[in-house]
Write a structure and sequence with these properties.
Chain A: One of its GO terms (molecular function) is ATP hydrolysis activity. The complex is a heterotrimer of chains A (236), B (302) and C (331). With 236 residues, chain A is of the alpha/beta class. In chain A, 39% of the residues lie in helices and 27% in strands. Chain A has a six-stranded mixed sheet with strand order 6-7-8-3-9-10, with helices on both faces. Chain A has a four-stranded antiparallel sheet with strand order 2-1-4-5, with helices on one face. In chain A, helix 3 runs parallel beside helix 6. The N and C termini of chain A lie far apart (37 Å). Helix content of chain C is 78%, strand content 1%. Chain C is built from 13 helices and two strands. Classes of the chains: A alpha/beta (236), B mainly alpha (302), C mainly alpha (331). At the B-C interface, helix 3, helix 4, helix 9 and helix 11 of B face helix 5, helix 10 and helix 12 of C. Bound molecules: adenosine-5'-triphosphate and magnesium ion.
Amino acid sequence: MSLEVSQLTVHHGAICAVNDVSFSVKKGELVAVIGSNGAGKTTLLRTLSGLNKATHGSATWNGHNLLHSKPERIVRHGVSHVSEGKAVIPELTVSENLELGAIWRKNKKESSASKAEITAIFPRLGERLKQRADTLSGGERQMLAIGRALMSKPEILLLDEPSLGLAPLVVEQIFQTIRDLATSMGLTVVLVEQNAMGALKIADNGIVLNLGKVAVTGTAQSLIADPQVRAAYLGY
Amino acid sequence: MIQLINTLLIGITAGSIYALMAIAIVLVWRSTRVINFAQAGMALLSTYFGYEAMVHLNSFWIALPVAMIGGAAVAAFIELVFMRFLLKRSAHGAISGVAPIIATLGLLGVIRSLTSSIWGGQDVRIVGPVSNVGYSLGANTLAFSPLKLLILVTVIVLVLLLSLLFQKSNMGLSLRASAFSPEIARLSGIRVNGVRTLGWSLAGASGAVAGMFQTVNGNGSFSPDSIEFSLLLVSGFIAAVIGGLDSLVGAVIGGLVLGLVISFVLMYINSSLFFIAPFVILLIVLFVRPQGIIGAKAARRA
Amino acid sequence: MHRFQKSNKLLLFIAFGFILFLLSNRVDELRVYQGASIAVYVIAISSIILLTGYSGQVSLGHGALLAIGAYSAAVARNEFNVPVVLCFFIAVLAAAFGGVLLGVAAARLTGPYLAGATLALAIGLPSLANQFTILGGEQGLIFDVGFPPLSLGEDFTQYKWFFWISALAALISMWLLSNVLRSRFGQNWRAGRSHEVAAQLAGINTGRSKILAFTISAGVAGLSGALLSMTIGTVSPSAFPLALSFSLLTGAVLSGVTTLSGVMIGAVTLVAIPEIADVIANRIGASERITTNLPGLIVSTLLIITVLFVPHGPVEQHRSRKAKKLLQKKN
Ligand SMILES: Nc1ncnc2c1ncn2[C@@H]1O[C@H](COP(=O)(O)OP(=O)(O)OP(=O)(O)O)[C@@H](O)[C@H]1O
Ligand SMILES: [Mg+2]
C-alpha cells in the first residue's frame, strides 16, 4: 500500500506548474509538502485526485492509476481530497455535508455509524449538525471539510492548506487531529502547507517544492534542521 | 356559496397542474442552475407523444406514461448534447450570465416550430379517461368532475413519490450538491454529469404530465398557439419563483397559490385579466417576498 | 480632437443617409419596402442591444413596448388628429414611460427573474388590448401617416415614403444612441454589467442607471413599434406576438450585444429570413405546414447557433481576432 508518483508533470496552458516530480509515500505515513506561493502544491494534489490532467508521468495508489481516472472514481479507490479553502457546501447543513462524503457507499447504516465517529473526532460539529454550513466559523468549516473527506473511509487523505486563514490555536488543534488520525487509524496523509513549521512538526517526512520541482526531500527532522530550508521556508 | 366552492375547486385543480410545471423548473434549476424557458416547449412535445399513443392505442393510461418517458428522453437528450456544451462554452465573457437564458429561449422556439411543422398548427384532441362533467350537489352542478378529482389525486401521488425519492434516497442530496458545488460533489464520489441528466429527465417527465393534464382539463385540445400552452409557459416559471425556485414544497405551494389567485380573479374581478394576472402576481411576490414563499435568500441574485 | 471626431461622425451619418436616398431611387418597390423594414428593425434591435449588451439584462418584453409605442401613436393620430411627426414623439414618450415602470421592477431583479417576468408581460399585455374599445379589439386600429407630400413628385410611392421616414428615424436614433453610450451614462451601464458590486462601490447607483437604461431602451422600442405599424398600416394584438420578441432578441444576438456597430447584420438577417425560408421550402418542395414554420425555425436555430459559437457577435469576434493577430506580430 503506497502512493507512487514518478516524473509527474502538469501544465496549465503554457505554464508548467508541476515539473518532473517523483516521490513515494508508504501506508500510515504523514508527508508534508511545503513550498512558497505558486510552487505547484495545489496543482500536485488536484492531479492526484483527478481534478487536473497530467501531461506526463505516472501516479498510482495501491496500484490504481490515478492519472487517467475521474475524481468520482478515484475516491472509490480510497483517496479523499480536501481542496484548498474550506471545501464545504455552504448551502447544505453540516449533517448533509457529512453525508455527502459517504454518499457513494450507498449503505445508510454504515454512513450514520461513521457520522458518529466523525462527531466524536470533532465534537463541535456534533453540536451543529442541523445548522447550515455557512453559519460555521472558519475553523469549524475546515473541520467539516476534513470530516466530509473522512466519511468516505479513505485510506489516504490529501489535505490542501487546512491552516489557511485560521487562528494559531485552531491550527494547532487541527494539526494535532491530523497527526492522531495518521497514528491511530493508520491513515496515510499528504499535507500541503504554507505553515511549514507546523506541518513539519507533525509530519514523518517532508517534500519541498520550488517552481514545480522537488527541491529537497527527507525526514521532517532533517528538513527542520536543514539550514537552507530553515532560511527559505521556516523563517529563521 | 356554490360559486365560491367552484372557484376554489377550479383553482386547486389548475394549481396542481402548474405545480407540476413548477417542479420541472425547480428540478432543472437545482441540477444545472439554469431556468429552462424551454420547459413548456418540452411539455408540448411530450403531450404530442401522448397524443400519438392515444391515436394508436386509444388508452389514456398508456398515453400518459408514453408522454412521461418521451418527455424524460427529450430532456435527457437536450441536457446531454446541448446544455453541457453550452455551459462549457458560455462560462466566460460579457454575456455569460444571459447566454443560458437566451439559449433555452432559442430551444423553445425550435421545439415550437418543429412541433408545428410535424403536427400542424391546428389543435389535437386528447380525451381524458373519465368524464369531465361536474358532480351535482343538490340542485347545483359543481365545477368539480371525476376528471378533476383524478388529476388532483394523480398529482398528489406523483409529488409524494418524488419527495419520497428525494428524502429516502441520496438522490436529492446528490442533485443539490452537484448544483451548488460540482467539484466537491465529484470529490465525494458523485457522478455529477449523470446526476444532471437525471434531474433533467425527472423534469421532463413532470412537465409531460402537466402537458397531458392541462390538455384534458381544458377543452381537450392542445396546440402551440393555444391558450393552454401559453399558460404552461408562464405558470411554471411564476409558480416556481413564488415557491423560491429551490424547493419542491415551494413549487407545489406556488402552483396552488397561482391557480387559486387566477381562478378568483377570473370569477370575481374580470375575466379579461386572465393573462395579465399572473404577471401582476409575479411582480407582487418579487417585490414583497423576493426570496419566495419558502426560499433561499440569495437565490434571487444567482 | 474629440470635437472633430464627433462632427466627423455626424458627417458620416449624413453621407450614409444620402447614399440610402440615392439607392431608394434605383431599386424596385419590394426592396424599398424591405429597406423600410430593415430600418425599423435597426431601431428595435438597437433598443435591445442597449439593454442587454450595455446593462446586462435580458428583456423579452420588448414586443410589449413596441406595442405600447404603436398603439399610442395610432390613438394620438386617430382620436386627436395629432400631426404625424408628433405621433412618433408620443410613441417614444409613452413607451419610455412603460420602460420606467418596467425598469423600476427590473432594478430589483436580475438575470432569469427579469427574463421570466418580461416573458409573462410579453404574453399578457397584447391580449389586454382586446379589452379596450378605444384600442380596437382583435382588429386593432388603423395607423395612416398619409400620402407623401406632392412636392416630392408624382411618382414618389407610398413605400418610398415609409422608407424615407424609417431610414431618417433610424439614422437619427443611431446617432443619438451612439452618443449616449459614449457618455458617462453609457460607461456606468457597462460598469454595472460586468461588475455590479464593484460599480456600486465606485459610487455608481446601479439601480438608477438600470432604470435609465430601461427608459431609453423602451423609448427607442416605442419608436420602432410606431414605425412598424406605419409600414403595416394597422396596429393589432396579433402584430406583436411572442415570436416578435424572439426575433428581435435573435437580431440583437446576431448583431452582437456588446456593440451597436453590428446592428445592420441582425436587421438585414431578420428581413432576409422569410425570403430565404421561401427559397428553401421551394427547393425541397416542403408542405405548407413546414413552409409556414420554417422562418420561426430558422430564427430560433440561428439564435442557438450564435449563442453557442459567436456569443459576442461577429463584430466583436472580428475585433478580438484582429487584436490577437497584432499581438502575434509584435512578439
Ligand atoms: N487554473 C489555472 N490556470 C492557469 N494557471 C494556473 C491554474 N492553477 C494554477 N495555475 C498556476 O500554476 C502555478 C502553480 O499553482 P498552484 O496553485 O499549484 O500553487 P500553490 O503551490 O498551491 O500555491 P499557493 O501556496 O499560493 O496555494 C502557479 O503559477 C499558478 O499561477
Ligand atoms: Mg495552493
